[in-house]
């Protein structure tokens, strides 16, 4: 079976992989505020998927298998310097791009110090919940056509990606309110959210540095740097 077919078999029928509507990036902040619970409902439907027979952590390969036995192995190896492909010897970019070694290493250590809170938290994640990758009608539907980065991790990863994409929408703040309203308890929310956010933040940061996107790097660094103060008041 193809990767998409296997993923479809895991998903609730309430989650659409072929949605109708428009790109969510077109929503204004006001429009998103009105329908954010719809987004959260659908994303949590992804996370409720049955993982019977699916082991480990990390992104799926074409057979929908993961490479890592633990969350720690997955997160740490993401930033290994000796991996094959695009990121081979990537740490050379500290000398050749705007990527700042001190900034990266500070938040890499912040991520590492919180991995234990995420260990054992295994959920199907889309891992690509940037607003350009979600389709909505703004009223009843939110769908997810792109599963190329999907895998197994702490479900807060998908919300951390949304916040990294548009921090002014205040995703974690809204998620805390939503959870209280729905009676959803998320143990160790602050530490888990920060771990996932730092993981994805520094990963996306090095990508934008590698393509010399200085403007995005500045924005991402500002968002990462301000996040702890936002999360610890929740």
Quick recap:
50% of the residues lie in helices and 6% in strands.
Describe the 3D structure.
With 234 residues, the chain is mainly alpha-helical. The protein has ten helices and six strands. A hairpin with a 5-residue loop joins strand 4 (135-136) and strand 5. Helix 5 (101-112) packs antiparallel against helix 9 (189-210) and helix 9 runs antiparallel to helix 10 (214-231). It starts with a helix and ends with a helix.
Could you give the topology of this structure?
Blueprint lengths: L2 H8 L11 E2 L5 H19 L10 E2 L11 H8 L14 H4 L4 H12 L2 H4 L4 E3 L9 E2 L5 E2 L7 E3 L2 H10 L5 H12 L6 H22 L3 H18 L3
How would you characterize the largest beta sheet? 3 strands, antiparallel
How many strands in all? 6
β content, as a range? 5-15%
Number of helical segments with 4 or more residues: 10
Shape: globular
Secondary-structure class: mainly alpha
Unreliable stretches (pLDDT < 50, length at least 5) are: none
Mean pLDDT: 97
Rg measurement, Å: 17 Å
Q: Biggest sheet, strands in spatial order?
A: 1-4-5
Element pattern in H and E = HEHEHHHHEEEEHHHH
Distance between the termini: 43 Å
Question: Helical percent range?
Answer: 40-55%
Provide key terms for this protein.
234 residues; mainly alpha; three-stranded antiparallel sheet; single chain
């Amino acid at each position: 079976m193809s990767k998409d077919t296997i993923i479809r078999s895991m998903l609730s029928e309430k989650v659409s992989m072929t949605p109708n509507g428009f790109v969510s990036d077109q929503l204004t902040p006001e429009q998103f505020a009105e329908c954010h619970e719809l987004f959260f409902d659908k994303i949590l439907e992804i996370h409720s998927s049955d993982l019977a027979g699916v082991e480990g952590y990390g992104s799926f390969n074409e057979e929908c298998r993961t490479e890592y036995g633990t969350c720690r192995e997955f997160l740490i190896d993401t930033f290994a310097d000796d991996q094959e492909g695009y990121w081979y010897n990537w740490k050379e970019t500290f000398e050749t791009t705007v990527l700042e070694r001190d900034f990266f290493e500070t938040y890499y250590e912040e991520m590492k110090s919180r991995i234990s809170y995420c260990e054992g938290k295994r959920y199907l994640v889309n891992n690509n919940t940037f607003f350009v990758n979600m389709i909505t009608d703004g009223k009843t539907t939110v769908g997810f056509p792109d599963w190329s980065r999907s895998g197994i991790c702490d479900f807060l990863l998908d919300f951390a990606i949304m916040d990294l994409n548009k921090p002014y929408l205040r995703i974690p703040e809204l998620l805390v309110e939503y959870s209280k309203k729905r009676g959803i308890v998320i143990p160790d929310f602050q530490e888990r959210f920060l771990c996932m956010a730092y993981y994805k933040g520094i990963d996306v940061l090095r990508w934008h540095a590698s393509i010399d996107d200085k403007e995005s790097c500045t924005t991402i660094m500002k968002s990462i740097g301000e996040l702890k103060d936002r999360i610890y008041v929740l």
